[in-house]
Amino acid sequence: MASGVKKRSSFAVWWPLGFALLLVGLLVSERFVFPPGLDSFTEQREMMDTIVSITLFAGDEGEAVSAFESAFSQMEDVVAIASIYDSQAEAAQLNAAARIDNPSFELVELLDAAMRLSEASRGAFDVTIEPLLALWQYDPSAERQFWELDLEEQQAAIDEAKRFVGADRIHLRENPTAIELDPGTSIDLGGIAKGYVVDRGIEALLRAGIDHALVDAGGDIAVVGGKPDGALWEISLRDPEGDAEPVARFALRDGAIATSGNYLRFYDPDREIGHILDPRTGFSAQAASSATVIATTCTEADALATAVFVLGPVEGLAVINGLEGVEAMVLRYDDPTEIVRSAGLDRYEIQKKDGT
Fold it and tell me: What DSSP state is assigned to residue 177?
């Protein structure tokens, strides 16, 4: 009898504890397998002369606000480094002195990527294009603007400026770290900095514990994680002719997309000299109406979209098809309704209902 009573007593003591542990285990496993619902949050801020928008999924508003602050702060830090118009920015100081000692990691990484992508694009993308860009800028003190000069005068000035253009004129030094420019060379990071800023925003969101997000800086877009329900991020490509119907739509889980075109900004009042120049000729690029690139990072997508726009559909897609993990869509210059696609673009493009 005593033995039977002892066994029942032991069971009575341990059964509640075992049940509690089982219940905790079930709750933990349920939270792991079925995570709590995530809500969508969006915030916009003005940056880099455009609107930067972040959409993310978070468990509550507090988590979202903290992530927004981390991402925007990181992006603003990069903007403060990469500007050539703010005399306090490292890029501006580099242009002024042709050398900067102990540069930030961000500026070194930006220029390293710029040099690599210049080589990959056969010189169609080049951040040392600033001496050529300066020729076309409006000069309030000039009797005639550069676009008003005859072709012979323009060509002479361009030939002189081209002496100082070329990614090989940038030198990244080590021990101690420094960046040097050859005499007469200056940089403009406008064709790559926005994409790099977007990438830094995505990295900040991931550090903040955000697994699903989209960062859009005026059409330079990076996404991560798809949406919590498994859906992909959908991105539309606007028509350069201004039609309401998008030219194409793309679906991405992770990666980046950027578009370059000369249909928004011009140097001259007649809107004939587009703001994207061909660094090889010094004149406005007229090989495409727009170029869209999908890549792993927005830094790559931004720079390569500019390069493909400069190169045009034939030479541009030859470059893209030779790069791993990169796809592109190009609208021809003479007929923007004619679309040329890289070999693997269909992995991302959403087909229209009519199958086109």
Answer: T
Give the number of other Cβ atoms within 10 Å of residue 335's Cβ.
9
Confidence of residue 24 (pLDDT cuts 50, 70, 90): very low
- Report the alpha-carbon distance of residue 7 to residue 9 in Å, rounded: 5
Q: How far apart, in Å, are the Cα atoms of 300 and each of 216, 280, 349?
A: 15, 20, 19
Does the pLDDT at position 273 exceed 60?
yes
| Kind of pairing between the strands at 213-217 and 178-181 | unpaired
Distance CA 298, CA 286 (A): 24
User: What per-residue confidence (pLDDT) applies to 218?
Assistant: 92
Give the integer Cα–Cα distance in Å for 64 and 38.
10
* DSSP SS3 for 10: helix
Start-to-end CA distance of the chain, whole Å, equals: 84
Amino acid 297 reads T
pLDDT in tens, 281-296: 999 999 999 999 999 9
Is the pLDDT at 19 greater than 70? The verdict is: no
Q: Report pLDDT for 275.
A: 81
Predicted confidence (pLDDT) at residue 267 exceeds the cutoff of 50: yes
pLDDT surpassing 80 at residue 148: yes
Listed in sequence order, the residues at least 6 apart from 122 whose beta carbon sits closer than 8 Å to its beta carbon are 311, 315, 319
Token pair belonging to 116: 């690599």
Tokens 């100081």 belong to which residue? Answer: 93
Hey, which residues does 41 pair with through a beta bridge?
56
Q: Tokens for 294?
A: 């999908």
Kindly report the number of other CB atoms within 10 A of residue 352's CB atom: 11
pLDDT value of position 270: 67
Closest listed residue to residue 310, CA positions, set 354, 347, 270, 274? 274
Look at residue 10 and tell me whether its pLDDT is greater than 60: no
DSSP conformation letters of 108-151: HHHHHHHHHHHHHTTTSS-GGGHHHHHHHS--TT-SS-GGGS-H
70: amino acid identity, one letter: S
Residue 334 DSSP SS3: coil
Distance (Å, rounded) from C-alpha 348 to C-alpha 40? 23
Strand partners, 57: 40
